[in-house]
Amino acid sequence: MRSRFIKQIGIEGQLRIYWDRIRAKEVYPDGYISTEWLDDCPCSYGRQGSKGYHNAYTPLGHKLDTEDFDCFGQPEEYPSERWPTKCEHCGQPVPQEIRPAKVGDEGIEVNRQVFTSRLYNTASGKPEPGDLYWIKDHEPGACHNWDGCNGMHLHGIGPNGDMWDVDGRASNCSMRTDRAHRCWVRTGSPEDGSIHVDKNGHTCAAGAGSVILGNWHGFLHHGEWHT
Ligand SMILES: [Zn+2]
Ligand SMILES: [Zn+2]
Ligand SMILES: [Zn+2]
User: Fold this and answer.
1) How far is the CA of 208 from the centre of ligand 3 (A)?
2) pLDDT tens, position by position, 76-93
3) How far is the CA of 172 from the centre of ligand 3 (A)?
């Protein structure tokens, strides 16, 4: 599969509600009540028999030429009629919140958020299989793994749809405390399709430059994803 370079072009916004039945576990001296979530939704994430919390979104559209995750504002700014009315997995109507008063009481917790994500120049607006894109992972010099990292990490979406941080550390890295090497050495550029990832440089003993993404195991060589 040929790689494709994509770019962020804005921010996508959604109003999100998620909720669950809860049970009070402990009341603290200051009155705070800790709760457990009871996984009331029978098909959370759309999977029958997969229990979890209820969840729903309504789209707010796109804002172009911004990277500001707050550009859609705060939940209080949206009137009640804009919000989802039922769970998108099981159809349960959004309930009223009920706070439990004492240990053992059941209740309902409802959370509302303005949910924002990066918008890309693809048909779906999201990164798609085969795509490569830059992400600002951190400020320059503040890398979790490496010295001398400018903060821009190359991410790729493998043919199976799973994401790879090419500038991350391999799970089987053999030099776990070393901050000078790279587990994957990249040359060329993703923009013009010459990107090539292998072990040709200061690197560790992990793998042969390949990546394992769930059920997919392969390489990114000369702009091409292959097994
Ligand atoms: Zn549900
Ligand atoms: Zn970094
Ligand atoms: Zn390594």
Assistant:
1) 11
2) 999 999 999 999 999 999
3) 7
